[in-house]
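Lab intake sheet, docking and co-folding queue.

SAMPLE TYPE: protein with bound small molecule
LIGAND NAME: flavin-adenine dinucleotide
LIGAND FORMAT: SMILES
REQUESTED OUTPUT: full 3D complex as structure tokens
PRIORITY: normal
SUBMITTED BY: R.K., bench team

The fields below were copied directly from the construct record.
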Amino acid sequence: MSERFEVVVVGSGAGGGVVAGELALRGRDVLLLETGPHMTAASFQRWEAKANHDIWWPLRFAPLPDGDLVTFLAARCVGGTTTVNTKVALRADDHDLAKWHAATRLTNERAEPFGAGDLAGHYDRVEQVLGVRERTDWPKSVYTLEAAFRELGSPLEAVHAYTDPNCQKCGSCLQGCPTNAGKSTMNTYIADALARNLLELRANAWVERVLIEGGEATGVEYVDGEGERHVVQAGVVVVAGGALNTPQLLLRSGLESPAIGRHLGLHPVRLVYGLFDEPQDAHMVYPITAHAMAHQHDEDGGFVIEATTIQDPIAFATTLRDEDGPFWGQRLVDAVQKFRHWNGVLAMVNDDNNASVSLDENGNEQFAVAFQPVEHERLDAALDFSREVLERAGAKQVCWTGIASTHVQGSARMGDDPAVSVVDRNGESHEVKRLYVGDASLVPRTLSVNPSLTIMALASRLAEHLDADQADYLSSARLAA
Ligand SMILES: Cc1cc2nc3c(=O)[nH]c(=O)nc-3n(C[C@H](O)[C@H](O)[C@H](O)COP(=O)(O)OP(=O)(O)OC[C@H]3O[C@@H](n4cnc5c(N)ncnc54)[C@H](O)[C@@H]3O)c2cc1C
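RESULT FIELD (auto-filled):
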């Protein structure tokens, strides 16, 4: 006989970690399945290649019409991408939330357009659990650029972050925080529930499909680390594999909603680097300590610049380019030799959800991106602004990376209109009852700021909804167990 839980959560990142942790702490019977390993601070070290192997998804790419590529970056481990991210914690602003209603007609339970008030209490709760605080302890590399930002009318401000005061500013966030100062869902929500024996966590467990009978989700089928197949029954299934994986799991499970995988938002980024005479040691900072918000809204340019940061050596050396093309040979050697002298900014651009994820006829994932002219304009404006800042600050040479996406969102979005959304205002599938989405896929339109706090607030809202159990999904699962 297969096992039965009230709730099975697939994926343990920003969304899944919060849903599973909150429900377990509320006394619900929860199984959390994660395809990556369960690694902790004790094994994290600054070893880029090993971290890439142990806790990151292999790089994934989407082709662009001009032959270039968009690179997708995400983690595959307990805590998901929160285990390796840079912990910037920002709330969505009113401009972003207004776009949600416009995109999917999303309303709240009073049938009003969904807005800031619908998330405020959840943001409060998540910020409290994660210990969000302002970071004013800027390193030298930020001060190198500060005057230039100010002179260009877009002053740097301190970011809020989920890092506690033990942060050593060692810069190894992307390999997993070795001191636990950086808060992930792994060392907060999930660790809290595990420490109280309230949560069943299974790492190295790949969920192949959601089981559906008579229009209702009844459980999942997964393969464990030894290759053994398991079936688990559940009152509710929450899919939270991240915005690239969740649509694939829904499609593999037989869902047909036309919006699945469409409207993928990238929040595309480029790193832009400037070479300075003095060492900057931009690799030895808490990666993101400040940001410039003057161009945040579409009408002001549609980009946010974060400072300062530089990639670790492998990523740095393999992504450099300028107007003469990718760096290679002597140009690359010269650049890498001066690693400590490069300073960098991260240019994040508003997009209009014109990408998609789907499965080909063999079931393999495929990604498409169709940037529109206005999105190209924003990307160009962000690059130009970043170059200007670095040159004004005294950089002798400027180069940059290709376009990457670390903030995918919107591929199974919530809304009132089933033609353009996959789940309703509570995160429940329009198509299959007892099936919920609980991750970045929910976000109806790309945010202009880093998304994880919003994903966690949405997940906290979902946990509250599931625990209230108005549809009797969980109490009926309890009875049947
Ligand atoms: C380098 C980097 C820096 C970032 N910095 C910031 C930042 O400073 N601030 C911020 O707000 N955001 C940041 N982000 C983005 C943020 O971390 C993500 O938006 C967020 O973690 C996404 O949450 P999620 O739950 O959708 O997916 P994830 O956190 O990626 O979690 C999904 C999990 O599901 C698992 N999974 C997938 N499919 C399956 C399956 N079939 N079976 C079992 N498990 C599965 C995955 O392995 C993964 O662990 C950053 C991202 C990157 C890559």
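REVIEWER NOTE: The first strand starts at residue 3 and ends at 10.
SIGN-OFF: pending second check by T.M.
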